[in-house]
Prior knowledge:
Low-confidence stretches of chain C: none
Helix content of chain A: 40-55%
Number of strands of chain C: 6
Distance between the termini of chain A: 12 Å
CATH class of the largest domain in chain C: Alpha Beta
Mean pLDDT of chain C: 83
Largest sheet of chain A: 6 strands, parallel
Order of helices and strands of chain A: HHHEHEHEHHEHEHEHH
Strand content of chain C: 5-15%
Order of helices and strands of chain C: HHEHEHEHEHEHEHH
Distance between the termini of chain C: 26 Å
Oligomer: heterotrimer
Strand content of chain A: 5-15%
Shape of chain A: elongated
Structural class of chain C: alpha/beta
CATH architecture of the largest domain in chain A: 3-Layer(aba) Sandwich
Shape of chain C: globular
CATH topology of the largest domain in chain C: Rossmann fold
Radius of gyration of chain C: 19 Å
Largest sheet of chain C: 6 strands, parallel
Number of domains of chain A: 2
Mean pLDDT of chain A: 89
Radius of gyration of chain A: 23 Å
Number of strands of chain A: 6
Largest interface: B-C, 54 and 62 residues
Strand order of the largest sheet of chain C: 3-2-1-4-5-6
Amino acid sequence: MSAKKSLMYRLSNVPHQVIGALTLIVIALPYLMPVGIPLKITPYSEQFKAALDAVPEGGNVAFSLDSAMGGTTETGGMIRATIKYFIYDRPDVHIVMWGMHYDCVLVFNTFVADVLEDADYGKEVAWFGYIPGTDAAIAKLSDDLKGILSVDFYGTPVAQLEIMDNINGAPDFDLLLSFDTYGHADSYVGHWYERYKTKIAIGMLSGSIPVATMRFTAGQIVGFCGGVKGAAELEALLKYPGPAYTNYDVMNVANLFAIGLLLFGNITYFLTKKEER
Amino acid sequence: MSFIRRTEIPITIAAIMTLIMLLDLFTGDPTLRAASTMLQSWAIILAGFALGIGAVSLLRLHTTNIKRKRPGWYGSVLIIFFTAAVLVTGLMDLNLANPILRFILDNMYMRLYAAAWAFEGIFLIYGLYRAFKIRNLDSLILSVTAFFCIIRNAAVAEVFFGPAAFAPGTWILDVPNLGGIRALMIASSLGILMLGLRTLLGKERGYIRTGG
Amino acid sequence: MRRAAAGKVPYVRHIAAFEAIDEAIGRASEMGRPVHLTTGHSGAGLYSKLASDHLAGLSMLNYVAKRCAESATDVIATVAFSEMIPVAEDIIRFASIGVGKPEYYRDDMVRFASDNWLGYDMYAMRMASEAAANIMIGAMDSTSSAIIACGGAIAGAMNIGGARAAGDICQLVPFCDYVLIGEETPAAGAIVSGDTDSLASSVSTDYTKALIVVIILLGIMMASIGLSMDWVSM
């Protein structure tokens, strides 16, 4: 009975409110006092950049905003860096944008809209907004793109958009970019890669990295960028620093805190067991 | 039972649709391709209608909560109010540029979204503390794997543990984890294949009214 | 499926998480709190490729609803997609009629907050924290799993989870007392539904997996001795 009230027992059963408060403090600190942890570029991020560089001159890129607004903590930086890369460094490339997630308009307004003001809308870039239907819509986009995209987000008929003159489906794109938090990338692989061998590169949450690694090693995608770490590396490679690098510090500190908590929980657990014996 | 309510009708329709999509995938016949494309368009339209069903069901449920003053009915008032506000302001400007809508989306929706994601982070860290205690062999493997995978994500760990800090985590992610993911993926794909086969054979009835 | 139709029901091994569902319902009955069940938010509901997982969750709802109706324990089903509302309502209604208690069903037993991830997770978490047993079987996605399961765990509910994808399972494991891993989810759905065709197809996937393992081993051997496996690719 005395062991139940011992300090060790209390330390090995800290209430969730205390853990939550500590987590908040630990995560807030790097925002208030940035540490500037050095970035280490990994081969996967370099492969993603190589996929972007491999788009031929005058090529067509499909840009699918499939990220929920909450996931833009991880994907926002990579979306912004990639669109800036194409608009400022590769103005020859044509970008057709749409979204499979209903938050795509918010994501577009937050991360993309101001960058597109520097582009020639209708010739270099076109934005089609949210397309409902997920799997069915992705399948139809690959076969009959203009069957779904008859007008752009602003109501302009697709016949009046010069960028869409020679684009009818998946075979007309040199690269598909999907920034995804919901698994739409799987549908793109199934319909765009497996049928038409369109090159696909994916940006996604860190939790999806294992699946993306599997697809990458199988050759189904040509690159992937995962989580805050991948986004920060991509921002550094493309030379457009953004929100991901700020979050990178926080991510590192949070990971260290998690390791510390894991060790602390185990140490106090074993000491409690020892006391009970 | 009346003819329209017979379960054989939706099962037959589902089987025919599945067969068309399957034959289109393997043959690429132009007629089948056209039929398949049309079916995909119908599915997209149905998806749009499903959103409407969701809104109607939401209103039905929450107006009932308010009428019967069930616990938490004030939350239902807020839900209905904001649903109406977003609907009306969204319809006023289909480019989503209405100032009231922008205010709700930018200052409430996005902030709440971020807070909910923060919940997940806090819960995960709490789960790490609570569940990753070494009680047996399984939990030892779980804890050690988690330790090395977290180290791999924290670039700053190189300062404490040196460049070799990432090696175990990288190996875990690239070898056993990849193998496990592939196995689960194959199993999951087989399950989806079986669903398609059962639909084709008319043996999948889960989406039809069941009598228990 | 033919053998199952002829009466030879395939054998399925003991699944601990499935056996624990009765225990969870008994616990809820003793504590006077409801049983909460949700089928998850992954995919796009009943017209996505994860429909089989949602259907497995709905089969589980059928079983849980029957058991709860028998013991007069409330069941709350939180659904994430609007097209699942009428299906879930029918399941609970017919389950209560099936056990001879048509008055058991109430129209607030099926809850729907939003098909938006945010609304669904927060609402389901609140429902889970009021329940004594929290059953999350179906197309559970990673974020929902963590939030709903933790909400239930903090409130002292007994958590039983089940998902197919690895990323979702790993989020259930820290908070659930029992977890259905991978193919156990649709298999459990097939067992409770009594649908021999579903059970037979679950078993046939095992045979297919064995065949795939044989092909992989064959490929390893052939690659080791320098032979090409191009004839296998479609």
